[in-house]
Design brief:
The protein is α/β, with parallel strands linked by helices and about 300 residues long. The protein folds into 2 domains: about 180 residues, FAD/NAD(P)-binding domain (3-Layer(bba) Sandwich); about 100 residues, FAD/NAD(P)-binding domain (3-Layer(bba) Sandwich), CATH 3.50.50.60. Helix content is about 25%, strand content about 25%. The chain has 8 helices and 17 strands. Strands 1, 2, 3, 4, 5, 6 and 17 form a 7-stranded mixed beta sheet that branches. Strand 11 and strand 12 form a beta hairpin. Helix 1 packs parallel to helix 7. The two termini are about 35 Å apart. Bound molecules: flavin-adenine dinucleotide (FAD). The site of flavin-adenine dinucleotide has 36 residues, from helix 1, strand 2, helix 2 and helix 7.
Length: about 300
């Protein structure tokens, strides 16, 4: 664990998180900007960036401009996936595997990812998990299914294989390779989750039934309410006030994670507002903490 206490932890490397970090840098705040990669994966996928004043080009070109600015402005980035954000007294504890960080406030800018299997959210805490390191020990000697989004998460599947009796791996990328003998690769797609109250297995697109005690979705982002216990959400989006504050004192949110429209400018704008609000919050911490944000 780092002994350092940051003023702010910005979670999410996309444009919302970047803008928040840039503004916090200008405010001379002591902040941690952490994410899976700077500027996010979505930006690189845009064949042509629309609705962005002064810019014509694709996402890769915009990412290069942002990177240049990040270097010139000296905005530090920490590459890590955050598994959990916990309010603990007057600060937040953020965990990333065996690592953890402390911060007085948080900006959640984790974007949105559509659910790959419908209804997964209904089984959260009842057999569905997004973090092998956090929940793996619950499946010691049991059977689990993993949907793995990229090679980066093979290690988490191997970790599960060290605990579970059997791991069925559904890989959403090419060239998957596992060392553990109890991992069976399934060249199919999970179509449905089965269970009554708790997960009992999955049904694949081709109709194969696999009995399992748990299903792990190993990917960059988890639903915000899974990441932060007690966080109020609506339709999967974080419920925010106009200043981007949430129902948890000291925790703000920005970007796609707060809702539509899913656009760069809206994400960047909210990142900026969240950074301004945090600046204000850190000065008047006590009065913010007692405020009713959703009257
Ligand atoms: C193909 C495509 C084209 C698009 N074209 C346009 C366009 O032309 N114009 C436009 O305005 N918008 C466009 N968009 C939408 C735009 O990409 C999004 O609105 C924008 O990226 C949102 O930024 P964000 O920072 O909120 O989230 P994201 O860009 O999604 O960034 C969130 C980041 O946080 C990371 N993250 C999530 N959870 C964690 C965690 N627990 N720990 C660490 N990191 C985490 C994610 O991996 C990601 O890198 C397009 C989207 C796509 C997919």
């Amino acid at each position: 664990m780092e002994n350092k206490i940051y003023d702010v932890a910005v979670v999410g490397g996309g444009i919302a998180g970047y803008t928040a970090a840039l503004v916090l840098k200008n405010f001379k705040k002591n902040f941690l900007w952490v994410g899976t990669r700077p500027f996010g994966e979505k930006l690189l996928k845009a064949e042509r960036v629309k609705n962005f004043p002064s810019f014509t080009g694709n996402g890769v070109e915009l990412a290069a401009l942002l990177e240049r600015q990040m270097i010139v402005e000296e905005v530090p980035f920490t590459k890590a996936k955050i598994d959990g954000v916990y309010a603990s007294g007057d600060r937040f504890l953020l965990t990333s595997g065996a690592l953890s960080y402390n911060a007085r406030s948080v900006i959640l800018a984790t974007g949105v990812e559509t659910e790959t299997v419908k209804g997964a959210a209904a089984y959260l805490g009842r057999g569905v998990s997004y973090c092998a390191v956090c929940d793996g020990s619950l499946y010691r000697g049991k059977t689990v299914v993993c949907e793995i989004s990229s090679k980066n998460y093979e290690e988490e599947a191997e970790y599960l294989a060290g605990l579970a009796k059997k791991v069925y791996a559904f890989c959403k990328y090419k060239n998957a390779a596992f060392r553990a003998e109890n991992i069976e690769r399934v060249d199919d797609t999970i179509a449905e989750l089965e269970g009554e109250g708790r997960i009992t297995g999955v049904i694949t697109k081709s109709g194969r039934k696999i009995e399992a005690d748990g299903v792990f979705f190993l990917k960059d982002s988890a639903p915000p309410a899974v990441l932060v216990g007690g966080l109020e959400t609506e339709g999967g989006h974080v419920k925010v006030a106009r200043d981007m504050s949430t129902n948890l004192a000291g925790l703000f949110a920005a970007g796609d994670v707060t809702g539509r429209p899913y656009q760069y400018l809206k994400a960047a704008g909210e990142g900026l507002v969240a950074a301004y609000s945090i600046h204000n919050y850190l000065v008047h911490e006590k009065s913010f903490a007692t405020q009713n944000l959703f009257p």
